[in-house]
Amino acid sequence: MNKIIALVTGGFTGESVVSFKSSAFVESQIDHEKYDVFKIVILKDEWYYEDEKSVKHPVDRNDFSITPGDKKITFDAVFIMLHGSPGEDGKLQGYFDLLSIPYTSCDALTSSITMNKGYSKAVVDGIPGLHVAKSIQLFENTDKSSELLLSSLKLPLFIKPNSGGSSIGMSKVKFDAELPGALDKAFNEDTQVLVEEFIQGREFSVGVYNGKNGITVLPATEVIPSNDFFDFEAKYTPGATEEITPGRMNDQEKSNVERIVKDVYIKLNCRGMVRIDYFLQADTSNFYFVEINTIPGQTAQSFIPQQVKAAGMNIGEFYGELIEKALGS
After folding, report:
1. Among 221, 166, 189, 227, which residue's Cα sits nearest to residue 20?
2. Which of 7, 178, 217, 280 is the most buried (most CB within 10 A)?
3. Which of 208, 206, 160 is nearest to 185 (CA)?
4. Alpha carbons 118 and 141: distance in angstroms, whole number
């Protein structure tokens, strides 16, 4: 008998557009001979399942069930493909924990911590071989913010909404005069902003997951954006970025990266699949942790599908491993 899976998508933020693309790709790749998949859309004002006739059926939030016909449907597991809040910040995970419904992603505490870039860096700092760029976390945007940053950090700087994703609201600042506008842009997306010094080096993104063979590191992707940095346009516009999978690393670099990202996965108590972004510093090849994404994108342009393919795996079987792990099989 097939397991019944809820594929959750949507969200409360601007990342919902990416969530819909990710969930469409996942739905197209999951083995429907093995799993009965129902796409559940979660928005601020409604939760629903939309059937083949485009009829919306509301979700009963008391037990996360739907009744599209005469029969009530409950779920064996949830495949969370909702970027941003509430799917990536721990809120849904806490809800599913209360209902004792297993899910494919990290738990509520890990999701909440890793959603905050500054807190994530504080937790992983101290892992042997892992470096973090010098940074300042801002909790408000005042007249003195630019002065504080310029007196404490060296240009160029990266300005990032602390809890945002998909590089929305992110800027690279090379000159003093650009800083106020970049801060306004970031604070427009979040109440906390992370400002960090730019690390000169090669940029990579690597998937890590816990499947049938335990914690596994996928082949890393080297990212060479045509823009000045890997922003939203570079991420989601085909051809805007050169992506090399597997990325160009020598054996020593590859070995160091695999050890460090496994340690990050373990120290943050991750589950399911995550994606870790990092730099290898020019000249030294030192590993600089950038951030971790606990609900990594699964669009046609996304890294994880590229990396699964490079590892010689079938993407549908990969998603099946995540589901089976969540089910405890």
Report:
1. 166
2. 7
3. 160
4. 17
pLDDT in tens, 216-258: 999 999 998 776 654 445 444 556 678 999 999 999 999 999 9
Reference 106, options 295, 327, 271; nearest CA is 271
Residues 6+ apart with CB under 8 A from 152: 136
Q: Is residue 186 classed as helix, strand or coil in its secondary structure?
A: helix
As a whole number of angstroms, the distance between CA 297 and CA 275 comes to 9
The b/e string for 97-122 (b: 16+ C-beta within 10 A; e otherwise) is eeeebebbbbbbebbbbbbbbbbbbe
pLDDT (tens digit, 9 = 90+) per residue, 14-27?
A: 889 999 999 999 99
Which two tokens mark 221?
């992707």
Q: Is 51 helix (H, G, I), strand (E, B) or coil?
A: coil
d(CA 70, CA 137): 53
Q: Do 223 and 243 contact (CB within 8 A), yes or no?
A: yes
Beta bridge pairs of residue 206: 276
Q: What is the pTM of this model?
A: 0.89
